[in-house]
Design brief:
The protein has 135 residues and is of the alpha+beta class. It is 56% helix and 13% strand.
Length: 135
């Protein structure tokens, strides 16, 4: 019994030593080097490019630009997405100040309406003008 526990301890020590050497050299278990991180000196994308860079957020903003306000259900059906995805992306637009969210009750049923803010409209127009090719 003593010999078995000593043998397994030696194996564990050997594996730990090899794993430490692999981590120190940047080698993963598959033998490939780990992917390098984004250099800290490279600027991060901010502003409308960051917010409208996701296709669904751009589609939400474009749909809202065509009407004064749209309900959550109508927007969800129009875009063909699910509740959680729409809520998450609408929240990002709201946090950026591009979309306003109005929550009310119609009888006992909650109703959520979205509208594009003035800041969101100008940001969307600026973003689209930078994306479209100039003639």
């Amino acid at each position: 019994m003593s010999k078995s526990s000593t043998g397994s301890t030696a194996v564990i020590d050997s594996l730990t030593e090899h794993a430490g050497a692999a981590v120190a050299t940047g080698i993963t278990t598959s033998g490939l080097a780990a992917r390098p991180r984004r250099p800290r000196g490279r600027p991060r994308i901010e502003g409308p490019e960051r917010v409208f860079g996701h296709p669904l957020r751009l589609r939400i903003a474009k749909a809202l630009a065509g009407s004064p306000a749209l309900s959550f259900v109508y927007l969800r059906n129009l875009l063909g997405t699910n509740d959680g995805t729409l809520a998450a992306h609408a929240r990002k637009l709201e946090n950026a100040g591009y979309v306003a969210c109005d929550k009310t009750f119609a009888g006992r049923m909650p109703r959520t309406d979205f509208r594009l803010s003035d800041e969101g409209r100008s940001a969307l127009e600026g973003y689209l003008s930078r994306q479209l090719p100039r003639r």
